[in-house]
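Collaborator request log, item 7. Partner lab (contact: R.S.) asked for a structural prediction of beta-N-acetylhexosaminidase to inform their binding assays.
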Amino acid sequence: MYLKLIITSFFCFCITLLYAQINIIPQPQFVQQSKGSFLINNKTAIIYDQYSKPHALYLQQQLKTNYNITPRVIYYNEIKNLPTQQIISLSVKNNVTNGYALNSTQNNIEIMGVNDTLLFNGLQSLLQLIIQKNCQTYIPSVIIKDAPRFQYRGMHLDVSRHFFNVADVKRYIDYLAFYKFNTFHWHLTDDQGWRIEIKKYPLLTQIGGYRNGTIVGRYPGIGNTNQRYGGFYTQAQIKEVVQYASERFINIIPEIEMPGHASAAIAAYPQLSCFPDEAVEIAPTTIWSGSKKGKHVQQTWGVFNDVFAPTDYTFQFLEDVLDEIIPLFPSTYIHIGGDECPKENWKRSAFCQQLIKDKNLKDEHGLQSYFIQKIEQYLNKKGKKIIGWDEILEGGFAPNAAVMSWRGTEGGVAAAKQQHNVVMTPGSHCYFDHAESQQEDSVTIGGFLPLEKVYRFEPVPSELNKNEAIFILGAQANVWTEYITNTAKLQYMIFPRIAAIAEVLWTNPENKSWLNFEKKIPIIFNQCKKWKANFNKAYYELYADVQPSVDNKSIQLALSSKQPKANIVYKINDGAFKKYEAPLHISTTCSIGYSILIDDKVQKLTKQPFHFNKATGKKIELSVLPSKAYPGNGAFSLVDGIHNTKGLAASAECIGFEGDDVMVKITFNEPTIINNINIHSLYEPGSWVYLPKSISLFNQNMELLQQKEVTNTENIQSVTLLKKITETQIIIKINNYGIIPTGMPGAGNKAWLFLNEIEIN
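Returned to partner:
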């Protein structure tokens, strides 16, 4: 009877395995399940061929560490006396079409890769297949044929703003390996710290590797830590990390920023600056720690005018630095930055202006191109290629350069059309420093990037034809660390979004399914728990969607949650909680509190104030579309009754325009008396965001009613009419500030205009 129960239980378990979902991330191109499972235990043997011994040892170590199983590792020529069952066979064979194949039966498992990298990817699939039941470890019977869609599958980490030690970086690389990434972009230098030892220039780490303090809170900060902060990697540590990544078949691309984002290097060696004797540039809003004399590593975030001077000394310095970088990194590419390089100091430098004339360059953009091309020529001689952010397109493209397109996809499209290799990494879908939650629970740089939006990213723009699309190597997600100060926060920002971008990069579109991926989210969370890694549950949070009513007389608030069996409750002002059953129609100023109810307990309560005025919920039209990077909720963002209280950190509540003037047309349901109009806009010059230059009001016949020149720095600009008017439609022209003035961050560039709300009273 007892034996019968055991047999019955095992049969039921096999049935469970048969119908269990195969939860591999990224989703393989082909999966076919069959009945049965393979039992892994200490009797299991891992067999390797002449190419796969490292893979066998890696698999043995993973099974020992995570499942307390120590299978034998045996060379294939030595298996004559072994039973044919309980074998995991690993091999590199060129008859596997462009990828790997995994065949698991009750008796054995065979994994073949067309090369050692793809075989390693197959091991990750095997590890994700493992099921534990009744203290036993199983692999379901399955056939997998798989290959990556893109050749470049990257993740980035900025260690300049906040430093992560070798153990942290290795852990990060393990995450990348698990999800089949093959590239780690290591951002090693910036204004806030130089993180790699250069033996010829020891001051780069002795001085450039540390700052005297760091702002507290969101830029521009509410204080300063007043504590020396920093760190760097020795060349021995760099080699250690590179080797660790290589064993996981991950290529590391180092980034050495130039010609901008150079404050840390200039602090160490001031003669790299156009103006070595000038003191460090400190924004008026920065709360500074320590001396302000001479050059210093920056203590705040943003873009700074003190950039590399294009002198013989600078080029020799950079060549010397690169000579020490090149032997450390086997990567074909060296990332040279090239982004956000202000031209202000070049404009006022007599040397730079003479150089522009001598080299017959068009302007300072041409000078940047000259700078980049000179570095490219040097690296090409050393057998390396450069890759840089899309600003390297400005002023003329370096002949052999590749581009990372971060300011949208336009730079990538332009580069691909010129037959240059491209890695897509637009901020709209690939910046994991942006918040994943609508309800901010920690300080971030701003923006809103939910999980589903990451998953729906398509790296190949529709503007490219077949011949142009081949230059899109792939994509990567970026993790900038201004507000990521520790490992727990780093994990919180990447999980589960790293799994979504992994599937974007690996799986062909026809084999992707958001509905299937959605079912894997709990699996991702469980994996994080195994790693003891932090993760973000924002996907299951309460989501609020604000839209105009059909008649434009009110606004509609719809609440939803992906959490199973979620009970949603809400209250108006300080009233009692009510059960949410349908979208709420709001037609007066109030505060709506809403939450999920679990076990009759209110979870995190969100309070959203709504400010009603004569424009709220009305029909609104714009003369130009907002930037793709800052679309907000479209034109409706300006009449949704929600006031922005967190600046750029809540940029999803705003719509942004880069250099554009905008005409706003608001139509009322009936003739409406208008006394004054308030334009809510942001003023954050450190981020290149300025108030409008002027505001003009017109009636529907385009007759000018009132005009105001904006001269102060208040975020709300009020235009009071000389006399009351009654209109059914009003047109507001909001003129962009224009070009950022000399001496300010981003000088010479177009100012951004961020609009949040229009109030009419």
